[in-house]
Amino acid sequence: MKPILLFLVLVFSVATNAQVTKVSLQASGLTCSMCSNSINKALKTLDFVLRVDADIKTYTFEIFFKPNSSVDFDMIKNKVENAGFAVAGFVATIVFNNVRVVNNQPVTIEDKTFLFVNTKDQILNGIKKVKLLGKGFISQKEYKRNAFPVSSPRTYYATI
After folding, report:
1. Which DSSP symbol is given to 140?
2. Helices 73-82 and 33-44: crossing angle, nearest 10°?
């Protein structure tokens, strides 16, 4: 009984170190409000999405998540791409609780692994914005300029 209880306490403590609360996504390839509406509808079909606020002037979407849900960044990106557009910027707002970040070292947050680049070593607490840098999460121009490796599933290059 004690090993099971210890396992549950350990899993619970790891899972509560950080929580993704929203994503600010900028899309490219939009030409009208119908394009924005298409992305908006596609994003709302994701079961972990609570609501989507769109700004058609800047082609940005604020995506808010249901409490305690598992957020899948790749599914969000794929919904935008399947609607016929591209992601030009992807910033996750994450609430951190004593998470150590070391430059170029992997950090696991929820079920995702982040490799923070160009980031000073630090302990993260509170609300922080994390910009994803991998292919499909930034503009083609920025991706080519920085030459980030292709992320593997659930592993994301990021900066704070």
Report:
1. H
2. 140
Whether residue 69 is contained in a domain is answered as no
Instruction: Decide if 103 contacts 116 (C-beta within 8 A).
Output: yes
Quote the pTM value. 0.84
- In one-letter notation, the amino acid at residue 140 is Q
Domain that holds residue 90: 17-31+85-160
Structure tokens at 74: 């790749």
User: Does a structural domain hold residue 124?
Assistant: yes
DSSP code string of 33-60: HHHHHHHHHHHHTSTTEEEEEEETTTTE
Residue 85 CA: distances (Å) to CA of 13, 15, 18, 78, 81: 38, 33, 30, 10, 5
In a domain, 153, yes or no: yes
Instruction: Answer yes or no: is 146 within a domain.
Output: yes
> Per-residue pLDDT tens for 26-54?
999 888 878 888 999 999 999 999 999 99
pLDDT tens readout for residues 57-88? 899 999 999 988 999 999 999 999 999 999 99
Number of domains in the chain: 1
